[in-house]
Amino acid sequence: MCDASPHAGAGFGRRLDAGGPPDVRTAGNHTGTGRRRLWELWSGYHCSICGTCLSLAELRRIAGKARLRLLPGAAEYEIHGYFVKLAAEPGRGARSMQKLLDRKYRTAIERCRRIGSETELQAFWTASLDTGDVPGPYWALMTHPLASETLTLRAFSDVHMLSHLAGASNRGDIRRLNALEDERRTLSEALAAARRRLSENETELRRLAERRAAEAQTLKSRTRAAREVEGRLAEAETRIRELEQGEAYRSVQARSAALATALEEASRTSRAEMQRRTELERALSELRSTHDDAVSTIRELRAECAALERLLYSDLHGTGDGASAPGTSIDLRGRRIAYVGGRAGLITHFRALIERLNGRFIHHDGGIDDSARRLARILGQADAVLCPVDCVSHGACLLAKQLCKRTAKPFVPLRSAGLSSFVTGLHRVAAEPEGTA
Questions:
Q1: Are 305 and 420 in contact (CB under 8 A)?
Q2: CA 129 to mean position of chain CA atoms
Q3: Helix (H, G, I), strand (E, B) or coil at 67
Q4: Residues 387, 400 contacting (CB under 8 angstroms)
Q5: Residue 68: how many CB atoms within 10 A of its CB?
Q6: Strand ranges (DSSP E) for 9-152?
Q7: pLDDT of the chain along its 437 residues, tens only?
Q8: Which residues touch 398 (CB under 8 Å, ≥6 apart)?
């Protein structure tokens, strides 16, 4: 945005002096029969167009494609000022900017193309301001052949004031956005690590299943071999009974002893294989349990990540009157939220978050500094209770759960004392009707 105002020292309803904008329908070489080009507009409008309709990243890309040289280490305002000057002349830079603006805001331009009067054009701009859709309609209006000097000045002044309002709140929003982005990045990395572990577990599980199938096949083969040995032993016994006398009998006895030894060895092998099969089945059961735990953890992480994304969306798209996209905001409706335990360094941030979400914050440290008697008094004042199970004494957590059950208040155990679990708990509280357990 640019702070220079083209209407300084003159009223909105009067023609400006020689330093002001010309009549936009006769400016430059424009014929008035088609859309105006960027360099045909009054130069005082170029600052707001570059700042509102084009990002710094897009300006850098234009510089690269148009082979425009930017000084190394140039500040953002220097890059912005450089392109504001380029926009006034029909050179490579201005033509590249015109091309990108027309392509980027093609939808808004097509909507304006069907407008046949300045009254309709003014109504289009007013509706765009009400919905917060400014960049595309602003570019389409400023280049529309029916836009008068009065209408373009009004649009410029609207955008000028929006820049002041945005600048007043932008610094705090950036800090909150950076914090949320860091939290989201940490959760994304944890989720990716959990997915990798799950993939490794599934691979190991398949490998064990294949090994078990191969060992089972080997066991079947050995069992068939043992049965064949038993069959041959039976035949040998029959022959022994038939040949109880003479050399043949002694020969058969020796062969029978050898077969008995082989059978005993086969039996020992069979027992060992059965024991190994039992051990493999136990290991497989443990792996399945580990897999189920990993899936449960991933599900919790996804829910917490979704809660943070909804809160982030609400911060990014919230308007001055507190409205936001449906399904993304949390409204505690004045409820008192008690937080038992947690980390001392986060309590101030949790209090600010709950107050921003239309709630009241009550804290008990979980028995470290506060007594259990005070816990009962605090929970009596609360409408809902949140308790991080990883950062609270066992006795305080159990007492809080019993008191909530006795008084029919929502008790929400949190997976951890972090921001993501806290936001997930707030979503659960906000989703329940008031007065329900």
A1: yes
A2: 29
A3: coil
A4: yes
A5: 17
A6: none
A7: 333 333 333 333 333 333 456 544 444 344 445 899 999 999 999 999 988 899 989 988 988 888 888 878 888 888 888 899 998 999 898 999 999 999 999 999 999 999 989 999 999 999 998 988 899 999 999 999 999 999 999 999 889 888 777 655 555 555 665 677 688 888 888 999 999 999 999 999 999 999 999 999 999 999 999 999 999 898 888 877 776 666 766 777 788 899 999 898 888 988 988 898 888 888 888 888 888 877 777 776 766 676 665 666 565 445 444 444 344 578 899 999 999 999 989 999 999 999 999 999 999 988 655 577 888 898 899 999 999 998 888 888 899 999 999 999 999 999 998 988 999 999 999 888 765 54
A8: none
Nearest to 141 by CA among 97, 96, 103, 111: 111
| CA end-to-end span of the chain | 51
From residue 176, give the alpha-carbon distance in Å to each of 55, 260, 261: 21, 81, 79
Nearest in space to 293 (alpha carbons), one of 198, 357, 221: 198
Q: Which of 235, 229, 213, 237 is nearest to 267 (CA)?
A: 229
> What is the spatial distance between Cα 167 and Cα 170, in angstroms, rounded to a whole number?
5
Amino acid identity, position 254:
A
Which residues are 363's β-sheet partners? 339
Closest CA to 429 of 302, 351, 366, 339: 339
Counted residue by residue, the chain has a size of 437
Rounded CA-CA distance 152/140 in Å is 11
Q: Could you tell me the domains of the chain?
A: 38-147 (no CATH), 181-317 (1.10.287), 336-431 (3.40.50.10140)
Kind of pairing between the strands at 360-364 and 411-414 = unpaired
What is the layout of strands, in order, in the sheet containing 360-364? 360-364, 336-340, 384-388, 411-414
3-state secondary structure of 126: helix
Q: Rounded CA gap, 251 and 264, in Å?
A: 20
Closest to 90 in 3D by CA, of 38, 141, 41, 42: 38
Amino acid at 22: P
Phi, psi for residue 259 in degrees, rounded to 5: -65, -35
Residue 84 has which token pair?
Answer: 């504001």
Q: In this structure, are residues 339 and 347 in contact, taking their beta carbons and an 8 Å threshold? A: yes
Angle at the Cα of 404 from the Cα atoms of 398 and 408, rounded to 5 degrees: 150
Closest to 425 measured CA to CA, from 366, 370, 350, 364: 350
What is the rounded distance in angstroms from the CA atom of residue 35 to the CA atom of residue 296?
A: 58
